[in-house]
Amino acid sequence: MNDLAPLLTPEGRALLDEVRDTDPAHELAVATRLRRDHPAELVSAALGQARLRQRAVAKFGAEDAARMFFTPNGVEQSTRRSVAAYRAERLRAAGVRSVADLCCGIGGDAIALARAGIRVLAVDRDPQTAAAARANAEALGLANLIEVREADVTEVDTSGYDAVFVDPARRSSKRGRIFDPEAYSPPLSWAVSTALGASRAAALKIAPGIPHEAVPAEAEAEWISDGGDVKEAVLWFGTAPGTIRATLLPGPHTLVSRGLPDPEVRPVGRYLYEPDGAVVRSHLVAEVAETLDGGLIDPTIAYVTTDTQTPTPYATAYEITDRLPFNLKKLKALLREREVGVLTVKKRGSAVEPEELRRKALPKPHGTASVTVFLTRVAGAPTMLLGHPVR
After folding, report:
1. CA-CA 20 to 30 A from 163: which of 37, 214, 296, 377?
2. Element of type H or E holding 247
3. Radius of gyration over every alpha carbon of the chain, rounded to an integer in angstroms
4. Secondary structure of the chain: what % helix, strand, coil (to 5)?
């Protein structure tokens, strides 16, 4: 029922320490050697856990990942540590002292909440996942703050907790990624109903692609990116209903909607700004354009253009050197003339795949120069904008 159990024994822990840094290319030789002294199933489990820990470093950091226990789904679906810590701090600052963490997975969010000084009930119905969450609380010295319960979250009484955090399953073994919020497990409507019953606050982790019209009127909606990658959206209850915000980590830097109209369209200027994905998902490009005194290159494209450089955490600035109608031959000739060896391709509003264009436009480096090309539309026309990041 629980294949973590052998790894939690003294023999299993010693074996985990021994295989910790095993190179996947050498696994077979290592397994063959270790099976002389240990059961084959234990060796396989230890090597599998070592692989999962290596993958988890990107989310949890080397120190925590080396002590934690993972399931394959747990590594894929768990929250990045920086994002979980940000959310936990928001709850702590709201006066929350206890949280019911429903659909807790391997415990990434519960760990962040406990480290913020919050008492946590962590619930998951899968036995192996709940066992991993329990082992992680113990491994990180947080068992006094985290109670792990194996149960159906829809049957758990959360009335004794200040807040509720729900992270519904958004993947299915049969269908893969789930886009319909009512097909989440549990459904979004159940999660919202549970959140509305929380005594102080609630947070629901949802897919960043959720339509804005699906956000309940009682909720604040926040889109979060980390290092430029959009990680999730969160529906907050008990905070600021109707508020839309984008938060960028590290920082944090938070941009709040002011209900601005769409920016005007203007000719491409000296600088092009690429808004962070969380800004785009939260429909806050107008707020960024206003801070830059900029406009859009096309009414349907989220690129902001200006003639002046203004530092902002919410968008990456590029200095534009060339504007060309889309033409592969002209692009190849220009790259050859400028001795380009590194080509970065970005796109918005173009059907051309960046990797395909990169392969055709620069089959081999011509030198050491680097160029960024934007495949986009300008006033409705397919266009290539060439430039480089502003340092």
Report:
1. 214
2. strand 244-249
3. 25
4. 35, 25, 35
- The Cα–Cα gap between 315 and 57 comes to 27
Task: Identify the three-state secondary structure at position 124.
Answer: strand
What H or E segment, with its residue span, contains residue 171?
A: strand 171-172
Report pLDDT for 86: 98
Going by C-beta distance under 8 Å and a sequence separation of 6 or more, which residues neighbour residue 309?
Answer: 270, 271, 317, 319, 390
- pLDDT tens digits along 16-47: 999 998 988 889 999 999 999 999 999 999 99
Looking at residue 1, its pLDDT comes to: 35
**Residues 230, 235, 236, CA angle at the centre, nearest 5°?**
125
CA 87 to chain centre: 13
Q: Report phi then psi at 57, rounded to 5.
A: -55, -40
The full DSSP string for 306-366 is ESS----TTEEEEEEEEEEES-HHHHHHHHHHTTEEEEEEEESS--S-HHHHHHHH-SS--
Q: Which residue has the tokens 């956000």?
A: 215
Q: What is the DSSP letter of 22?
A: -
CB 149 within 8 A of CB 189: no
Nearest to 186 by CA among 205, 169, 164: 169
Residue ranges in the chain assigned as alpha helix (H): 10-19, 27-34, 40-60, 62-65, 72-77, 81-93, 108-115, 127-139, 188-196, 277-281, 285-292, 328-337, 354-361
> How many whole angstroms separate alpha carbon 47 and alpha carbon 277?
37
Residue recorded with tokens 């949890």: 60
